Each structure stands twice: as C-alpha cells, then as structure tokens.
C-alpha cells in the first residue's frame, strides 16, 4: 500500500537550460527520503505572467506521495531551488527554477512561509494546465477563478521521460 499524503507541485523556470533544470529538479525530488514521485505532466512553454518583460517559461506539474509534513517538504524544495542556483533579483522576474507546493492532501494552512492550497494557482494557466495532466482525485481538478484565455501556453516539443519516474 502506498504511504503518505498526496501532494501536487508546480515547477517552472525561464533561465539557462530550462528543460535541464526541470529534469534536475525532478531527479532531486525523487532522491528525497520520504518522497515518491508518482506522475509527471507534459512540459509547457508559457508566457510570463506578472512581470512580462522576461523570457518564456517552461512549466510542468508533479504528483508525489510524501511522509514529510508540509513545512518539512517546503524546506526540501527550497534546498532543491538553492542547489539549482536559483537567483531572484527582480520580484516576479526571471528564475532558474521554482518549486511551488500547490495542494497537500487534507491540509489548509496559512503560515508566514507557506499557504495551502497555493493562493494564486487558480489564476494561472501555467499551473492549472499541467495540473490537469497529473490529477488523480475523484472529480475535476481545481478550476480557474477568472478567464485564463489571454495567457499563452503550449505543449513544449520535448518532455521528460517516463524512465525519469
Ligand atoms: O512561481 C511562479 C513563477 N512565475 C511564472 C511561471 O512559472 N510561469 C509563467 N508563465 N509566468 C510566471 N510568472 C511567475 S512570477
């Protein structure tokens, strides 16, 4: 039987080797004790939201099971961001990789460092579209809180490979 809680993560970046950074992030997630990666979405090339004058992002979603508590998992994902040399100079600006905790089974919380469910996920096509790929609950994935029609998003020509699971 599978142990732990189901968690959905959103990954994205727009600096350097974008696909390589997603691969490395998934590999590091897989290596975490207490984390089992269950499913990877396709990779999407997406127009930047927020600060618009920056390169396009690659985004994807990952479904995991984990025995780590939310804040412990957040510490681990922050370390993965550090390992991939994330540098944030402009708020909402370019970054090598972001790992966002979107949903954590059975948890609603607001702490200074972590809000669950992710407070802006329903406004973001770059989150919702990949999330649908890996959605494993009964019923539909979370829907958009307003129209996402203007947010450019397209499946990327390459994807991560099953053997990376
Ligand atoms: O964590 C969100 C970072 N981010 C993104 C992103 O990942 N993708 C797109 N398309 N736009 C974004 N704006 C911000 S901030």
Task: Give a short summary of the structure.
With 165 residues, this protein is an alpha+beta fold. The protein is built from 3 helices and 8 strands; from the N terminus they run βαβββαβββαβ.
Structure description:
This protein is an alpha+beta fold. Helices cover 23% and strands 25% of the residues. It contains 3 helices and 8 strands; from the N terminus they run βαβββαβββαβ. The strands form 2 sheets. Strands 1, 2, 3, 4, 5 and 8 form a 6-stranded antiparallel sheet that branches. The longest helix has 14 residues. The radius of gyration is 15 Å and the shape is globular. The structure holds 7-(2-hydroxyethyl)-8-mercaptoguanine. The site of 7-(2-hydroxyethyl)-8-mercaptoguanine has 12 residues, from strand 4 and strand 5.
Jot down its keywords:
165 residues; alpha+beta; six-stranded antiparallel beta sheet; two-stranded antiparallel sheet; 8 strands; 23% helix; 25% strand; binds 7-(2-hydroxyethyl)-8-mercaptoguanine
Sheet/helix structural class: alpha+beta
Report the span from N to C terminus: 18 Å
In terms of DSSP E residues, the strand content is 25-35%
Small molecules bound: 7-(2-hydroxyethyl)-8-mercaptoguanine
The radius of gyration computed from the alpha-carbon positions, rounded to a whole number of angstroms, is 15 Å
Helical fraction: 10-25%
Helix tally equals 3
Q: N-to-C SSE series?
A: EHEEEHEEEHE
The pLDDT mean sits at 92
DSSP E strands, number: 8
Which stretches of 5+ consecutive residues score pLDDT under 50? none
- The outline comes out as globular
Major pleated sheet: 6 strands, antiparallel
